[in-house]
Each structure stands twice: as C-alpha cells, then as structure tokens.
Amino acid sequence: MAFLNMEQHTWAFTFGILGNIISLMVFLSPLPTFYRVYRKKSTEGFQSTPYLVTLFSCLLWMYYAFLKSGSELLLTINAVGCVIESLYIAMYLVYAPKSARLLTAKLFIGLDVGLFGLIALVTMLASHGPLRVQVVGWICVAVALGVFAAPLSIIRLVIRTKSVEFMPFSLSFFLVLSAVIWFAYGALKKDIFVAMPNVLGFLFGVAQMALYMAYRNKKPATVVLVHEEMKLPEHVKEVAGGAKPQGGAPAEGRISCGAEVHPIDVLPAVAVDEQAAGAGDEDVIRDDQNMLRPEQPTVIKPDVAIVVQA
C-alpha cells in the first residue's frame, strides 16, 4: 500500500511538472498577438477581458495553494501566470484607445484588486481550517469555468468575420493539453477542485480547434464603401473638380470606389449686365439653361452606404 501511495505521488508530481510546462505555454501563446500590437501601436479592437479574468483566476489559485498543503506546483505556475497576465494588461493599457483604457482600468481595480481582496478578507475572517479551503476551492472552480468560457466572445467574432486572426491555433491546442494534464493531476491528488473545471476546459478547447479548422482558409469579410449617385436638382449643378476655363469644354468629376458616378458638368459664371445688377442687391449668374440662381452654390454631399461583402 505504501508503494502504491508513493507511485501515485510520483505520477501526481510528474503530471504537476507537465502541467506547469504546458500552462506556461498557454500563458505565452498570445505573444504573437501582442507583438503585433506593439509593432502597429494599436490593439486593433480586441478586448482585454480574457486577460483580466485570467489574472483574477491566477490570484485565486495562488490563494488556494497557500491554504492547502502539498499544492506547491499550483502555487508556482499561478505566480508566473500573474506576472505574464499583468504584462499583457500593461501593454494593452499603453496601446488601447482612451475609452478601452478606462474600461480596462476600471475592471482591473474592481475585479483583480477589489473583488479578490474582498474574497480573501471574508474567507480569512468568516471561515477556518478545512472549511476555508473548501470555500476558496469552490470559488476557484466557479472562476475557472468563467475563464474557460471567456473565449466565447472570440468564438462569436470568428463566426461573424470568418477570420481566425485573433484565435491562434496554438492557444486552443495548449488549452486542451493543459486541461488533460491538470485533470490527471487533480485526479491523482484526489483534488476535486482542480480536476472538475478542466473537463469543461477540454470541451471548450476542442470546440475552438474545430472552429479554427473550419475557418482557417476562409476569406475574411471586408468592408467596402459605396457612394450613391448624386442626384442634383435641375436648376443646380455642383462643381466636382476644379473650374473650367471660360468657353472651354466642360470638365468631368468622377469618384472611383466601385460604384458608377455620373460626370458633373462645371458651368461658367456669366456676369449679368449692369441694368439687371442695379435692379436688386443680390448678385446672380446665368447657367447654360438661361435660368437665374444665387451666386453662392448649395453644397450637396453624397450619401455613403456601407456594404459588407463575404
């Protein structure tokens, strides 16, 4: 029996080491995305929520590892995860737009500082011994399920845009591998709080890998601007480009964006004789149809429609 316990402990230690290695790869898998953010000096619209939630989860698992004896391997990897996720959030705050920075700062203060501090304070004061471990363990399970569900927003983005640009295959692959390793570690350590959430993590990871294989060769949706034809009143024709010389051929103004735009004639300004000018204070000019209109033209802007092409 002692030999079996030793062997079980050895296997648990082995899976724990493997879990640390695989989890480190999971933490580092967004590096290509953040390198692109650094190179382009823009977050390009992606959200910081998964990194904030992951940091919150790492803080809770560190707290759990402090409370439960024999959980040193959980402590090491989650401490490293806290450092890495903090660096990601800091880079996001540097390159994100102002509104996104404010939202991220509020979530960081409210979730990773406020809520974690509140949980630690309440569990330290209201529970003791094994009860405290169980309470913190169940909180960790709930948050771990939230971490595994966080990529659902990215999955919706992939389906809508038909692009896997912000869902790298390496992240999904290492998520599945990490879930398998940590499930085995929790089962061997008889730690239900470690084993349980990794079942859902495995399912989400497989779903992301399947989605990646389905959309990896799809052409992403593009946004095309289409200018509608400018419909002008019969007595007004607006100048589209430059002025034409007196007595010269009419110039044409064209807008090229994939839609047909009819040319617009530029009309010469013809001075009115002094008798007509004296009849009223307002200066008028005569167009090619012998009609009078005010000297200041009415500015007419074409409507713009956005069409998404798959």
Description:
- The protein is mostly helical.
- The protein folds into 2 domains: 2-218, no CATH class; 221-310, no CATH class.
- It has helices at 2-28, 31-40, 49-67, 72-95, 98-126, 129-149, 152-161, 169-188, 192-215, 274-279; strands spanning 222-227, 284-286, 292-294, 304-309.
- The strands form 2 sheets. The protein has a two-stranded antiparallel ribbon. A two-stranded antiparallel sheet has the order 2-3.
- A hairpin with a 5-residue loop joins strand 2 (284-286) and strand 3 (292-294).
- Residues 223-310 have low confidence and may be disordered.
Strand order of the largest sheet: 1-4
Write down the domain tally.
2
Number of beta strands: 4
The major β-sheet equals:
2 strands, antiparallel
Quick structural summary:
Helix content is 61%, strand content 6%.
Task: Note the main attributes of this structure.
10 helices; two-stranded antiparallel sheet; globular; 2 domains; two-stranded antiparallel ribbon; disordered C terminus; 310 residues; mainly alpha; 4 strands
Give the topology, please.
Blueprint: H1 2-28, H2 31-40, H3 49-67, H4 72-95, H5 98-126, H6 129-149, H7 152-161, H8 169-188, H9 192-215, E1 222-227, H10 274-279, E2 284-286, E3 292-294, E4 304-309
Antiparallel strand pairs: 1-4, 2-3
Helix pairs in contact: 1-4, 1-8, 3-4, 3-5, 3-6, 4-5, 6-9, 8-9
